[in-house]
Design a protein that fits this description.
The complex is a heterodimer of chains A (336) and B (240). Chain A is mostly helical and 336 residues long. Chain A is 76% helix and 1% strand. Chain A has one domain. A two-stranded antiparallel ribbon of chain A has the order 1-2. By secondary structure, chain B is α/β, with parallel strands linked by helices. Chain B has one domain: 3-Layer(aba) Sandwich (Rossmann fold). In chain B, the strands form two sheets. Chain B has a six-stranded mixed beta sheet, with helices on both faces. Chain B has a four-stranded antiparallel beta sheet with strand order 2-1-4-5, with helices on one face. In chain B, α3 runs parallel beside α6. The chains are: A mainly alpha (336), B alpha/beta (240). The interface between A and B is medium-sized, with 19 and 33 residues.
């Protein structure tokens, strides 16, 4: 029985992955470049919502910091991948060791993720020791700080006009691979002893401590992991859109990501995936209507209304904190 | 196994424990009785490393040697075998019964050993096996208490701290829980039991302490205290 489960688990998981890959392949072959790019952005949003669900859902933190980590990741990977010739022109004041380096995308993203993780660690060091929702305030502050730095540290960021003409190194397959990696990590985590410790910390910190969990370390791990993925997502995004300004990723995005997590169900990875796809598709679908009627910001209103309705009728989100049966069957089974 | 000397603990500005001393020897069942607010839970939280004392010592003979409970991190204390089942059950409501139990074994790495402990817990509380996939929050109060004790047992305690296991339970359920506690003691688990229900606690305790306003006012064997006039009047509800 146990052997049968461990055999079907990974096989079923790989089958799901392949099915998604076939869909992406079909989409890439058939759809217009605009729709393919939209699909790539949707996949990045899936990764963002799922990674936010690690800290906000599994560990029960309330972080709004994703846009800050994305901005950091975006600038870091943009500066690292610019050809030196273009740096001379756009960023003449760069320190010389940055001036001459040009990294391929993958190492640049890795560096971006690391820096995002280090910043998250430094923010978490004091804040995660406190009880209550101080993290929301601190991460909100972090967004403002990062925007301020990006605007004023012009030697590194070219100030308010931002960076453009960034090489378009990302495609749909990069986004697909990254989203798959984040989803896989989150689900493996959720059904592991470490993920259980995160949920236990969220449910009842005192009881978790009594079971030998260092709740501070667990919260730190969840927060840093979420930030790591967010910074990489920022890097992917910037190589897809090819432009970044200090205002690219703002509080509005933080709100949208939190809405995805809450609507899908805090703690439900599948819920975040569904909500991220739905909300990204929705706000894009509403755009022509916004232009025709002159009602700019309509999609924001719809997202906010949807959030209120979900909180009213299904306070735990569409899927609560659980996963559908087939997901549990693939990833479950780590209990003694 | 546990030696506490002159422990002073503050909660904010309040001086809760005013120099208490107590001992628990290997294999015995000690009871700490007292009224609401006497400092019983504060004592246990200090022993678990969740609160830090202002002064005094608390030494525990752990799995790998002596542990200074006034300095060690909570997770280290659990790892050394001093495990608490906290007041008010404190189970994880949205996690399943099986996941709640697995959390108890969080620091243990030998899966086979864990499985053996799990079987033992299932023998003590068969209901936990029947309802393994139910969410913890859907259990009745008595079942939640069993789950809380079972979770603590999965940490393989050398010394088990039980904080008010009778709290809010029906009399019949209290009997069952105390039967299990007696069984645990017979099987060789050292226990420090904290109770307001003094009659039940003194009945099964080898050694007992009376805590009043942060001071230990009486100590002795269970029967000695049960026969003491002051205890009979103040805690057992008996007239002279």
């Amino acid at each position: 029985m146990a052997a049968a489960r461990s055999f079907t688990g990974p096989v079923a998981g790989i089958a799901v992955l392949c099915a998604c890959a076939v869909l992406v392949y079909g989409a890439q072959a058939r759809l217009s470049p605009y729709l393919v790019t939209l699909l790539a952005i949707t996949l990045i949003n899936v990764a963002l919502a799922v990674s936010l669900n690690i800290s906000n859902g599994l560990a029960g933190l309330f972080s709004l910091g994703h846009p800050a980590f994305m901005t950091i990741g975006a600038y870091v990977s943009a500066v690292l991948t610019f050809p030196p010739g273009r740096k001379d022109f756009m960023l003449p004041d760069l320190p010389s060791f940055l001036m001459t380096t040009q990294l391929p995308l993958l190492p640049a993203l890795a560096v971006a993720g690391m820096i995002g993780a280090v910043i998250a660690f430094l923010v978490g060091l004091p804040v995660l020791r406190l009880k209550g929702h101080y993290l929301a305030v601190a991460t909100l502050g972090l967004i403002v700080i990062v925007q301020g730095l990006a605007t004023n540290w012009s030697g590194l960021t070219r100030g308010g006009s931002g960076l453009n003409g960034i090489p378009r190194l990302t495609g749909i397959w990069w986004c697909f691979g990254f989203a798959a990696l984040v989803v896989y990590t989150a689900l493996r985590l959720k059904f592991s002893s470490l993920g259980r410790a995160m949920m236990a910390t969220r449910e009842n910190a005192l009881a978790a401590e009594s079971s030998g969990v260092s709740t501070y370390r667990i919260r730190m791990l969840a927060f840093v992991l979420g930030a790591f993925f967010a910074a990489i997502a920022g890097g992917l995004m910037v190589h897809l859109i090819t432009v970044v300004t200090p205002k690219s990723y703002s509080v509005v995005l933080a709100f949208n990501l939190v809405a995805m997590v809450v609507i899908g169900g805090t703690g439900s990875i599948t819920g975040s995936i569904v909500a991220a796809i739905a909300l990204t598709g929705l706000s894009e679908a509403v755009r022509p209507l916004e232009e025709k009627l002159g009602l700019y910001g309509l999609s924001q209103v719809i997202v906010a209304l949807g959030l209120i309705l979900v909180l009213f009728f299904r306070p735990n989100g569409l899927l609560g904190s659980g996963e559908p049966r087939f997901v549990r069957r693939i990833f479950g089974g780590s209990l003694p | 196994m546990l030696e506490v000397r002159e422990l002073h603990v503050f909660r904010g500005a309040t001086h809760v424990l005013k120099g208490i001393s107590l001992d628990v020897r290997a294999g015995e069942m000690a009871a700490l009785i007292g009224a609401n607010g006497a400092g019983k839970s504060t004592t246990l939280q200090t022993l678990s490393g969740l609160l830090r004392p202002r002064s005094g010592t608390a030494a525990f003979r752990g799995t790998s040697g002596p542990v200074d409970l006034t300095r060690a991190a909570p997770e280290r204390i659990v790892g050394e075998g001093l495990v608490q089942s906290p007041e008010g059950r404190q189970i994880f409501h949205s996690l399943s019964v099986a996941e709640n139990l697995a959390m108890g074994a969080y620091l243990r790495t030998d899966r086979n050993e864990v499985r053996r402990t799990l079987e033992r817990v299932h023998d003590l509380f068969p209901i936990l096996k029947e309802r393994a996939s139910a969410a913890g929050g859907t259990l009745s109060g008595g079942e939640q208490m069993m789950l809380a004790i079972g979770r603590a047992l999965l940490a393989q305690p050398r010394l088990l701290l039980l904080d008010e296991p009778s709290l809010g339970l029906a009399p019949q359920m209290i009997e069952r829980i105390f039967d299990v506690i007696a069984t645990l003691k017979q099987q060789g688990t050292t226990i420090l039991l904290v109770e307001q229900n003094a009659a039940m606690a003194l009945d099964i305790a080898d050694r007992a302490y009376v805590l009043e306003n942060g001071v230990i006012t009486l100590s002795g064997t269970g029967p000695e205290l049960a026969g003491n006039d002051r205890v009979r009047r103040a805690y057992l509800g008996m007239a002279q």
